[in-house]
Design goal:
The chain contains three helices and seven strands. It is an alpha+beta fold and 146 residues long. The protein has a domain at 44-145: Immunoglobulins (Immunoglobulin-like, Sandwich), CATH 2.60.40.10. A hairpin with a 2-residue loop joins β1 and β2 (76-80). The chain is elongated, with a radius of gyration of 27 Å.
Length: 146
């Protein structure tokens, strides 16, 4: 007696391909919805409306005869301003985790300022510095690693 070999009918093959594709698509959707997505800023659209003012402040910084100096000395961040700031803020931005961002107020009237960064996690940080001096706004960004 000859044994009959069973093979997949062509209809089963098509059904298997469509089912595999559907399961892969559903798996990818589940994966993509569970990923954390950090925007550049929580108020991204409001920041975009202020873009022109930021560009003007950056141009003001480029016109200065001296440059802004940011130095990382282990657990201290030293900033030397080209002019004496009247007010301002330093936004320590963490590109990989926006939950770790910090803001530090600039001390008025001191051209050289030092801040503790001991509590920051190791990795890449961007110091976004905005300050006012003589009724002119200045802005600069400096990358550093801790």
């Amino acid at each position: 007696m000859e044994k009959k070999q069973t093979r997949f009918h062509w209809g089963w093959r098509i059904a298997l391909i469509y089912t595999t594709f559907a399961l892969a698509t559903i798996g990818f959707m589940i994966f993509s919805f569970t990923q954390k997505v950090d925007l550049v800023s929580k108020q991204y659209y409001a920041d975009e409306l202020k873009y022109d003012a930021k560009m003007l402040a950056e141009n003001n910084t480029m016109k200065l005869s001296e440059v802004l100096s940011v130095t990382n000395n282990g657990d201290l961040l030293s900033i030397e301003f080209p002019n004496t700031p009247e007010s301002g803020v330093i936004h320590l931005y963490r590109p990989s985790e926006s939950d770790l961002d910090k803001e530090i107020k600039i001390v008025e009237g001191r051209a050289e300022q030092t801040f503790s960064i001991a509590t920051l996690q190791a990795g890449l940080w961007i110091a976004k510095i905005e300050w006012k001096s003589d009724n002119t706004t200045f802005y600069a960004e400096q990358r550093f690693t801790k």
